[in-house]
Design brief:
This protein has 20 helices and 8 strands. The chain is of the alpha/beta class and 444 residues long.
Length: 444
């Protein structure tokens, strides 16, 4: 537990010095109009879209300003991130207006990984990303899904089609003709990979222990929840900071608008870099399978399962690491109180959908221990949905596991006791899920 508090000395020194000058007016503003103005100035664009709703941003800003206890660096990161999200939306609207055919596409079929945090979802997605038929969103692209330089890409022709391969970062090969299309994606002058690499380096120096919790690689797939952030309607903020009023508002608010815009961004991404199937993942989707069904086409859910007594404290540990980057007033009990209840709620929402007649066949269950020790068995189960697992794919998966071994960045230490939790406390919030697991698999 003590390593939560091991932020670098220089990090603490900057925060202490900066906060000491607040009386001189150095505290950064988290103001809606100021953020929008800055985003428009940065991009040179004005249109946020007819479907842009300011209320989620207003709710989030009020909660961040009044409840999050952000330290100076936390204020700075939050301000820059919100400006970036608004800038993404401005750039997206530019492309949607210039190339209306982007939004006329049908969304690819999707395998969506919906397991709880710390249940092997990252490993599973990164394995499935090795299939050249699959479209994932690498970290560099999910941070900036729309090019920052609007003139780098000509999107006037459609590159969609089932004959395309999108496995490599460097380009897309037309497997039918052998010719190259849009092969400069990402364009060598595209700054988004270097921006992501800088972010990874910054995280390493600000929170040295974080990579043992969740390894981040600019070229590896990352959670698509960041696309929902563009509408300021996701659980990302409550994983990063203490924003209880925003979290409560979000949980009781229809999030259709966020999912509708999320699909627009996915259509942009598949237009600029084609494939045959989306492989997406974020625990956030556990709460909203009904909206996935509403806004997606053909979907199958992959649900990894792990003992809650392991996954819950592991996730609480990750949240604590996250929050320490933004505030020096992080309360572990507060983290536990918020997220244990929230996890129970997410599981209940997912099971309410899954146990509705006709929905059970939309799910394939993945077992964490098997995924870690013998991923081939779990992958075979998934590929039974798609004609079977070929030797070539199996070799790709094995190669990836060899190059990215489990616990490559160190061992993540955590326990229920770190958060004053007992197994009974988790049981109280997850009764429906534990009954489901016992009924289906004979175990907790």
């Amino acid at each position: 537990m003590e390593n939560f508090r091991q932020s670098p000395w220089w990090f603490r020194a900057i925060n202490n010095s900066w906060s000491g000058t607040y009386n001189l007016g150095t505290k950064l503003r988290l103001d809606k109009d100021d953020l929008i103005s800055k985003a428009r100035k940065v991009t040179g664009l004005h249109d946020l879209g007819r479907d842009f709703n300011e209320e989620p941003l207003e709710k989030l800003l009020r909660s961040a300003n009044e409840e999050a206890n952000l330290h100076p660096i936390g204020h700075f990161i939050t301000r820059e991130r919100f400006v970036s999200l608004l800038s993404i939306r401005l750039r997206a609207e530019h492309f949607f207006s210039k190339y209306p055919q982007i939004l006329e596409q049908e969304l690819y079929p999707a395998w969506i990984i919906v397991g709880l945090q710390r249940t092997g979802t990252t490993k599973l997605q990164r394995l499935l990303a090795q299939d050249p038929d699959h479209r994932v969103i690498p970290s560099w692209e999910v941070i900036n899904p729309v090019p920052t330089n609007l003139g780098l890409y000509d999107l006037s022709r459609s590159y969609r089609g089932t004959g395309f391969q999108s496995h490599s970062v460097g380009g897309i090969a037309d497997m039918d003709s052998g010719t190259s299309v849009n092969a400069d994606y990402p364009n060598p002058r595209d700054k988004r990979i270097s921006i992501a690499n800088t972010s990874v380096k910054a995280l390493k120096v600000m929170s040295p222990g974080f990579f043992a919790v969740h390894p981040i690689d600019a070229l590896q797939p990352e959670e698509d929840i960041l696309l929902l952030d563009v509408s300021f309607m996701s659980t990302t903020p409550e994983a990063m900071m203490h924003v209880p009023s925003y979290a409560q508002w979000l949980e009781t608010t229809d999030q259709s608008q966020a999912y509708a815009y999320y699909v627009k961004l996915l259509k942009f991404l598949q237009w600029i870099r084609p494939a045959k199937r989306w492989v997406l993942k974020t625990p956030h989707h556990l709460e909203f399978p009904n909206l996935i069904e509403k806004y997606f086409g053909e979907v199958h859910f992959l649900w990894p399962h792990r003992s809650l007594y392991e996954s819950v404290p592991s996730f609480l540990s990750m949240v604590t690491y996250n929050r320490m980057i933004f505030s020096n007033r992080v309360n572990e009990q507060q983290v536990a109180d918020h997220w244990v209840r929230k996890i129970g709620y997410m599981l209940d929402q997912a099971l309410s959908y899954r146990l509705t007649p006709g929905n059970q066949e939309k799910f394939t269950d993945i077992h964490y221990k098997s995924l870690i020790t013998d991923s081939g068995a779990e992958l075979k189960k998934i590929y039974n949905l798609n004609g079977g697992l070929t030797p070539g794919l199996l070799e790709r998966f094995r190669k990836h596991e060899t190059e990215h071994p489990h616990q490559k960045h160190g061992v993540h230490q955590y326990s229920l006791a770190d958060f004053g939790l007992s197994e009974e406390a988790i049981d109280r919030q997850t009764q429906t899920y534990r009954k489901f697991i016992a009924d289906h698999y004979g175990a907790k």
